Amino acid sequence: METQPVIVIKDLYKTFGENEVLKGINLSVNKGENLVILGRSGSGKSVTIKCLVGLVKADKGEIKIFDEEVSALNDDDLNNMRVNIGFMFQNGALYDSMSVRQNLKFALKHHTRNLAEPEIESKIMEALENVGLAESIDKMPSELSGGMKKRIALARAIIIKPKIILYDEPTSGLDTITSREISELILSVQEKYKASSIIITHDMACAKTTGNRILILNEGEITAEGSYEELEKSKDEWVHSFFI
Known about the structure:
By secondary structure, this protein is an alpha/beta fold. The chain has 9 helices and 10 strands. It has a 6-stranded mixed sheet, with helices on both faces. It has a 4-stranded antiparallel sheet with strand order 2-1-4-5, covered by helices on one side. One of its GO terms (molecular function) is ATP hydrolysis activity. This is Phospholipid/cholesterol/gamma-HCH transport system ATP-binding protein.
């Protein structure tokens, strides 16, 4: 794996009212790497990735994606940067009134202009085949199980062939077997698309399967970093509590 960072965050701070959510976050993601960020609810995991793509404005700090400072980008440049970023939301965030096909088509047309209909259809089928759900193309979200919704959300994230994918709790609310399937899909996406990813999770099995490197976030600060095996042997009580 290359040690060329595609994401660099330095001294990132974010406060909401009197609540200090991020207190000087420093991290980098290398090209082709899956970086897992572990932490309890409210530790600042999701806020970190929202700052990363400009959905939340940081109070202080530096965020660079492909060597571009995010805070310096205007709206057009920010949108152009986001074309290279796939986002898998925690709840799937599918449009209930649209079929699977329409959900994926909407995402594709939002990011890529001037595609002919046969090309759109081909890209939709490719994305669905990559998550094993080609037969669900005309189903409505209400007809899908929780695991299927997650797979469709992943298909929507990869349909634009992103260079970076952000996963927000990709296995939350799923049973053990389905969670394992989603984790294995994340690995296959990494291999197929050579994408760099940040995976926000508190699912240790997902972290172990998907993470090349793991950061542990505690109350807005990174308290540990390493591989799953390295962190599992940590003598630090807080770090060890994740592995019990």
